[in-house]
Fold each of these.
Amino acid sequence: MKKIKFIFTAVLAVVLSANTFSQTHDHFKMIATKTETIKVSGNCEMCKARIEKAAKVEGVSKAEWNVKTKVLTLVYNPSKVKSDDVQKKIAAAGHDTPKFKAGDKAYNALPGCCKYRK
Ligand SMILES: [Cu+2]
């Protein structure tokens, strides 16, 4: 029982310190950058590479697309780039976002495994 309590305390300490860290970190990010999650259509790891490459424009510090959830986490500097502009780049690479649809030409250029439209 003593051991369990010790482990619990240790875990709690780690969680609390991690939380404090992320709060200070978020506070810092609030000043310079904005974090946004955007649904982006795609299928596989190849899509992931393509989407992230397209999203990494000037002013974007992080672009990470989740293959399972199809959600792109975008961290960017709003004074340097607009979310819409990043989404346009992604659409131009062949992947739909809620606001911008990929043109037929860009979509048709995708490899077979990446064709997400049914
Ligand atoms: Cu793909």
Amino acid sequence: MHATLPMLEVSSFPPIRRARLETLQINVGYRCNQSCVHCHVNAGPKRPEVMNRETAEQVIAFMHESGVKVLDITGGAPELNPNFRYLATSARDAGVDVIDRCNLTILSEPGQEDLAGFLAENRVEVTASMPCYLEENVERQRGKGVYARSLAGLAKLNDAGYGRPDSGLVLNLVYNPQGPSLPPPQVPLEADYRAELGRRGIVFNRLLTLANMPVGRFGSTLVSKGQFAQYMTLLRNAHQDENLDTVMCRSLVSVDWQGYLYDCDFNQMLELPLRVNGSPRVHVTGITGGNLEGGDIVVREHCFGCTAGQGSSCSGALR
Ligand code: SF4
Ligand code: SF4
């Protein structure tokens, strides 16, 4: 795989600082039952990185000390981590909202038969990858057979109450472009998804549009196809200063499977740790969230992926 950090180091992205910490995003490991071409994590079935119980307990202690409102669990396929349910229930017991970044096919993997019930019982918010409502586009990005399994996963979640009016069980879908282009406007695309998936009996709450970041497998593919520089020019030219106030790293911190902190999951994949007082990297056991406020965020050229056009974050378009 091509490393993209060397091409992102020289950057004109403006300096930004942290605000109050609200969301703790934990990447519990890079193992996944899929190997999607756009994956910024380079996740797959053979990745050995898995957060162990000791680190999971340290993360929960950090969560308590930091007073965050949201625990956002990602991977890989986070549900494959043996500590996923411990993390989710510990946070819910503490009154913290939990988001599961779910790839939908995990719901039909052996051993996950009760996953939808567990998520519903614990009122975990599900944010599910669904990069198109058309079979051909989903399978080009995510692999053969994934479309039918994704619809089956959505149906299971709907059966458990997700996306249903008045259930309070939130099911959001995530769109990302097929190739090196910016996402289309979020609101009309959401209406298209609602109509197309509605024909198949599927309901959901919101569609979140995300830009592809020039890191991991997607970044490497751009390099292989000779499209990296062109994509970076597209992102830079579409930069909007007003998005700087709401980029997710201002209020979110990302933790890796070993408990080290990053300003976001993209920086984690680029191995650009969060810096505090010049230390090369910071572990969850060495700091509390309150100490992060006001700190410099580590930015590089890929950050234009967050500020281009309507903006992009784990919660979808910024405006
Ligand atoms: S994009 Fe998501 S589902 Fe696909 S390989 Fe990466 S982590 Fe797994
Ligand atoms: S890539 Fe990460 S550090 Fe850069 S602006 Fe986006 S969220 Fe912030």
Amino acid sequence: MQTNFTPEQLADPHVATSEKILRKCVHCGFCTATCPTYVTLGNELDSPRGRIYLIKDMLENGRPADAEVVTHIDRCLSCLSCTTTCPSGVDYMHLVDHARMHIEATYKRPFWNRLTRNILAAVLPYPGRFRFALKAANLGRPFAGLLKRFKPLEPFGAMLDLAPRRLPKMPESARPGTHPASGPRRGRVAILSGCAQPVLKPEINAATIRLLTRLGVEVVAPAGEVCCGSLVHHMGREEQALEAARRNVDVWLGEVEKGGLDAIIVTASGCGTTIKDYGFMLRLDLAYADKAARVSALAKDVTEYLSTLDLPQQEARGLTVAYHSACSMQHGQKITMAPKVLLKKAGFAVRDPAEGHLCCGSAGTYNILQPEISGKLKARKVKNIEATKPDIIATGNIGCITQIATGTQIPILHTVELIDWAYGGEKPAVLS
Ligand code: SF4
Ligand code: SF4
């Protein structure tokens, strides 16, 4: 694609990066067919190619974002399905990240939209506040229907629908600290505790720590870690995201200095995608660029790391698992086979639901901010999953677990909970 940026515009490193990305797009439109919003809404401006044109026009003309651009960029799930499809290697992720920063800096959102986003950014990344908000949601639950009838308040209704009625207790085994390997130590890793996941499903990290320590790996859950920054990063709040990234870089590199780390284990693929991008996000920060790149190189999804441990084949369990590959797993991190290979080795029969490339509609805060499109995608996803007639659904991202669980009665678990069970861990409570 031809671009017309001036030398002054290209002096801005963000514009220079976006210009390089834009030039790679050849307008072929292959990406439209696999874009969930184009498939759902049928509007070119809700396709990757349409959004690329809108972003190009906005940046080239040095214009503040307007309502039209914001509408179509807000509808993008950042699922990155387009990056998997694109034959020209267009780096849509960094382009849309830049567009979101530009929107945040130049556009004044309507009051209710601004308020909702401010609340989400102030609550979700902080486990204490998030836990409190979920408890308070029980009081607001009877008003969910009423809120959803008034368009600007719809996101609050969506939040109440998603909030679980009861919150699990944090198991002792998932608390910060060092969890020594049982038997001879064959590795040492840090684990990301996360923000929403330890409140909604602390069993995921508990299962990971149990499994890894049984396999001879020491696991450190370092104190001082914060949310990976993904939630606010996707809202265009770059400074908040970069502050979180810097803090985590310091904490993890502190652990490297203390005892060495073979990997930083991430059990939520949405967070993994962002941490693997810290090197890019902090590339312009001279004090952190190299350190962030080291952290990104160490970050591994738990299934990526488990694949290096050569687990033995287990007997068949007579249970069928539908594997839902989160977008951040398959498109963001390009991890497609490892989770399924591990599940098969663990003795499960694995099914791939149709249209596996399409997002379930969770996408961070998307199911709160865009409940209508999100609801359509969830219904489509659940239909495809249920068609495989599984006993269990497995996936590697807490957002997808929360989203899909509100649409089906089939138990849904994190992949690592099933692997832990198969290799001597506790049977997940939901299957008992
Ligand atoms: S990230 Fe997903 S929703 Fe956004 S343009 Fe690409 S395919 Fe479409
Ligand atoms: S598939 Fe790639 S090159 Fe083709 S329109 Fe989409 S982003 Fe551009």
Amino acid sequence: MDFTLSTEETEVRDWVRTFVRREIMPLEPDMLRRERAGQPGLTLTELAELQAKAREAGFWGVQTPQEYGGMGLSAVMAALLEIELGRSFVPFRFGGAADNILFHANEEQKRRYLVPTIEGERHSCFAITEPGAGSDARNIRTSAYQDGDDWIITGEKTFITGGNEADFTMVFAVTDKQKGADGGVTCFLVDRDMGWKSEPIPTMGEWGPAALVFDHVRVPAENILGEVGHGFALAMQWIGRGRYLLPARALGACERLVEMAIEQAKTRVTFGEPIANRQAIQWMIADSAVEIEALRWLVLHAAWQVDAGLDSRQAQSMAKLYGGVKANEIVDRVLQIHGGMGYTRELPVERWYRELRLLRIYEGTDEIQRRTIARNLIKGHTSVRGTLG
Ligand SMILES: Cc1cc2nc3c(=O)[nH]c(=O)nc-3n(C[C@H](O)[C@H](O)[C@H](O)COP(=O)(O)OP(=O)(O)OC[C@H]3O[C@@H](n4cnc5c(N)ncnc54)[C@H](O)[C@@H]3O)c2cc1C
């Protein structure tokens, strides 16, 4: 069994590591200051400038197929890069990306939605969650009925990431009540100027999602993504696109946080000795390091399964669950090691503490991941012996 990276993987990873150190981490103090003044930490223009810098070095569309100008990197490579990006709380992402389900668009839709999104000229959001349907997404109530060549959409979506900035949404609506999620949900590409409204939702994190309202919004039939009634499968494909990428980002954060904790433990003296000499502190560092290592291999193993074309759903759920739970335990320990300073807004620890909490909720809560994992085992789809059998 070979756990080493190839020369190419190491080179690509190291380039991103340097980019994060030189271009992204220096923005952190300013970003914290702005956020604390109630402003966005990083504006879309600043993000675009950083993305352009990375593009000059060839980093554009990390997982976008080469025929669309992307790098078409493997899932393992994408996970390695995400770990590096996670080391900073600056919300940088490489440009040239588009939601995976937009690649199912027809040629005309690709021209109007996919290509401009890849080029950063248009911004999308994915809207399935509703006030009455989150984990239970099969239970959505937003509906659409046909009126001549158009469809009329009515309903409310909530917690939509990017919903305040997006100029179009991929919204899921019931088009056949009898069939529901089994052939009665359709995905529509809906421009903001077709009439939907958004309202920011304040959260404990630094960026807020949006509530979207559709009040008889008229959408031409040509804006249906995929086929009528096949929307729920698309939604599941979107949600499943990167359950290894969210914990990969959290893993990078945990690495940096534990490095900060080690530094603090070596320099903070109490009762005449650095706290690093105390077993209570050492155990927190040791447990965190073991969990980081375990998470690394859960993430990379899930990504490897994606690349190998295997059914990776169990591995992805495990990585997402473990990442969410452990990242929260680790940031809590790191805050504890920093004492009162960890609780202040002078350090970024409390910011990470708030942000990492989300990982246990969105794109499938802890409980829903456990439900998936247990069901796969109980029904015999997977075994506790894992992929080695
Ligand atoms: C910041 C943020 C960004 C988001 N971005 C998006 C987005 O871009 N697009 C989008 O469509 N949605 C988005 N969401 C929605 C997110 O996916 C949902 O919040 C999530 O799926 C949970 O749904 P819920 O909030 O309705 O909780 P509920 O489903 O009401 O769950 C409440 C609690 O009950 C538990 N629970 C539910 N069912 C079961 C069960 N069967 N067994 C055991 N426990 C159960 C849950 O785990 C949870 O602890 C976002 C949410 C947040 C907070």
